[in-house]
Specification:
The structure holds 2 protein chains of 2 kinds.
Chain A (H helix, E strand, L loop, with lengths): L1 E2 L5 E2 L2 H10 L11 H7 L25 E5 L7 H10 L5 E5 H6 L20 E3 L6 H17 L5 E2 L3
Parallel strand pairs in A: 3-4, 4-5, 5-6
Antiparallel strand pairs in A: 1-2
Helix pairs in contact in A: 1-5
Chain B lengths: L33 E2 L4 E5 L11 E7 L2 E8 L7 H6 L3 H9 L6 H16 L7 H29 L4 H21 L8 E2 L2 E2 L7 H23 L3 H7 L7 H6 L5 H4 L7 H4 L20 H25 L17 H4 L3 H13 L6 E9 L2 E9 L7 E5 L1 H13 L4 H11 L3 H5 L1
Antiparallel strand pairs in B: 1-2, 2-3, 3-4, 5-6, 7-8, 8-9
Helix pairs in contact in B: 2-3, 3-4, 4-5, 4-11, 4-15, 5-6, 6-11, 11-15, 14-15
Classes of the chains: A alpha/beta, B alpha+beta.
Chain lengths: 159, 425
């Protein structure tokens, strides 16, 4: 984007749209387990994701851009996670928050899906059990970077 | 292997591969949305902002009035009890932490007390360890109630209390993180004591939080207690009588708000609780507002206990002097071969617990959290059965939701304060 002398902005539509998209990533209110508690505190003043344009947690998947899979996904919950993903409007992004969502974590047993990437495509993985809110904010930053550059998928949010 | 189990259980130990991640999975058909002449069935959850996790409530409604409410649970079933059977005694603590993730240390506390009873070392756990355990358990009680109050207020449309409670919670979590190394799921307790002593400067930082606490509580009370919208939504909603509460097995604030002063810390004092002066807040109304007041009072009583522990904290060891259970002191590992071998054996094989069964329970933020533990003399538990307070408290929803409005169901779920990690395990 560039600015001319007469207070006019010149930009490619693609770039401008990406800038707007990346500055208004609205997450879906979908709390699953322990990580949901750390997800819940990111709109609070200590972390305040309003600063990066993500303050509005939407309860309806139709209005959300970003799905934060926060916690362990049981085999009973997996189809519902997938259905919610399908209900979200394109373009959409997914953060796999925590060890359980990313790989099953400590629960290598009959009940837990060994990694949410078996049911939905994941853009950013956040390690930790649970990750700190700072880690999650960093993951949203990475999503924003992806939106601006147009890349997709499989990033590991290493601090 | 039973016939009704999927064939992948026990063969590989891994769930089936769902294949192409872009393929649409067909969920099993639910009869949750249907309509007849006098009743419409409406599914609330499992993804719903006010169900505090993955609860599905199938509501039969007539207009705005709820005729029946069936909680459908199991969306977060994790197999924690089964996982615990495959881990050493001390390792089991890590998965047991993740049941009630709002107050992980009370899980640890109950489990450790059970195992210590089986080992017969309850009386030998050093005094300082007991005091720190009490302090940490009360801290997690405050943080848990903070999250409860914040989310409950959001459900009712008030967002400011959430910011206040998160601030208070962060202050306490900073302390817990300094001591245990983690903000949540700390696994700070060990069988026979605690993992490490309090770090330098901890008590000074604790003093700051103690000094700040009354103002924070006053702010919260100012925001909500006399707020006409809040009282309109809460007073007289979801009344549970004392008889019902006892019959349904309710414990914790939900029981005490109905007028039954049952608190394990008073009735069966453990870990130096008998030394502290504190009240058990009790109300008689049994409605959502009473449960709200009881929890607020409990936060203040918890802080009173923390202050007393802070005053009386004694120096001393933090781990039981029992080589069969406790790791040797770290410096000695570099100096003595016996210590090194001992350390290696304990870490690689764990310790053995005499055969028998035991029930260990403590008063958690949601009520009596207990573990029934069976040992067959091995280095792993043979069976761990949890008594999760949320599970029993949630049962009351069926009883109290009928006849009320849909909007009140949200208030009732919030006021019962279920945690689904614990309900579904």
């Amino acid at each position: 984007m560039e600015m001319s002398a007469n207070n006019l902005f010149l930009a490619k539509i693609d770039e401008a749209a990406r800038w707007a998209q990346s500055s208004s990533v609205w997450p879906l209110t979908m709390g699953l387990a322990c990580c949901a508690i750390e997800m819940m505190v990111i709109p609070a003043p200590q972390y305040d994701i309003s600063r990066i344009g993500s303050e509005v947690f939407r309860s309806s998947p139709r209005q959300a851009d970003l799905m934060i899979v926060s916690g362990r996904v049981s085999n009973k919950m997996a189809p519902i996670v997938r259905r919610l993903y399908d209900q979200m409007a394109e373009p959409k992004w997914v953060i796999s928050m925590g060890a359980c969502a990313s790989s099953g974590g400590v629960f290598d047993n009959y009940a837990i899906l060994q990694g949410i990437d078996q049911v939905v495509p994941v853009d950013v993985y956040v390690p930790g059990c649970p990750p700190t809110p700072d880690g999650l904010v960093y993951a949203i930053n990475l999503i924003q970077q992806q939106i601006r550059t147009g890349g997709r998928g499989g990033i590991f949010a290493r601090a | 292997m039973s016939d009704h189990l999927p064939d992948w259980i026990g063969s590989e130990g891994n769930p089936p591969n769902f294949g192409d991640p872009t393929a649409v999975l067909e969920p099993e058909p639910y009869e949750v949305v249907s309509r007849s002449d006098d009743e419409m069935v409406l599914s609330m959850g499992p993804q719903h902002p006010s169900t505090h996790g993955v609860l599905q409530v199938v509501l039969g409604i007539d207009g705005e009035t709820v005729k029946r409410a069936e909680p459908e649970i199991g969306y977060l079933h994790t197999g924690i009890e089964k996982s615990a059977e495959n881990l050493f005694w001390n390792q089991s603590l890590t998965v047991i932490d993740r049941m009630d993730y709002l107050a992980p240390l009370t899980n640890n506390f109950a489990f450790c007390r059970g195992v210590e009873k089986l080992l017969g070392i309850t009386g030998q756990v050093p005094r300082r360890a007991q005091q720190i355990r009490v302090m940490m358990a009360e801290m997690t009680r405050i943080t848990s109630h903070c999250i409860w109050l914040g989310t409950h207020a959001i459900d009712l449309g008030a967002i400011s209390p959430f910011f206040f409670t998160v601030d208070l919670r962060e202050n306490i979590l900073d302390l817990i993180e300094a001591a245990s190394g983690a903000r949540m799921n700390m696994t700070y307790f060990r069988v026979g004591g605690i993992n490490g002593d309090l770090p330098e400067g901890f008590l000074e930082r604790l003093d700051e939080v103690i000094a700040k606490f009354p103002r924070r509580m006053r702010d919260l009370r100012d925001l909500l207690q006399k707020n006409p919208i809040w009282t309109d939504r809460e007073v007289g909603v979801g009344v549970i009588s004392a008889e019902d509460a006892v019959a349904w097995g309710l414990t914790g604030p939900s029981l005490r708000a109905s007028g039954v002063a049952y608190d394990l810390r008073k009735i069966e004092p453990y870990s130096t609780y008998e030394e502290y002066e504190f009240d058990v807040p009790t109300r008689t109304e049994g409605d959502c507002y009473a449960r709200f007041l009881v929890r607020l009072d409990e936060m203040e009583e918890s802080m009173r206990i923390i202050e007393q522990v802070r005053k009386n904290l004694e120096p001393g060891p933090i781990m039981v002097n029992e080589p069969a259970v406790a790791l040797p002191p770290k410096p000695s590992i570099g100096l003595s071969m016996e210590s090194l071998i001992h350390h290696f054996k304990l870490v690689s094989e764990g310790f053995r617990v005499p055969a028998g069964d035991v029930y260990g329970a403590v008063e958690g933020p949601r009520g009596e959290i207990g573990y029934y533990i069976v040992s067959n003399g091995e280095n792993r538990p043979w069976r761990v059965r949890t008594r999760p307070p949320s599970f029993y408290n949630l049962q009351a929803l069926r009883k109290i939701a009928a006849g009320n409005l849909i909007a009140d169901v949200v208030v009732m779920i919030g006021s019962l304060d279920p945690v689904f990690g614990e309900v579904d395990r």
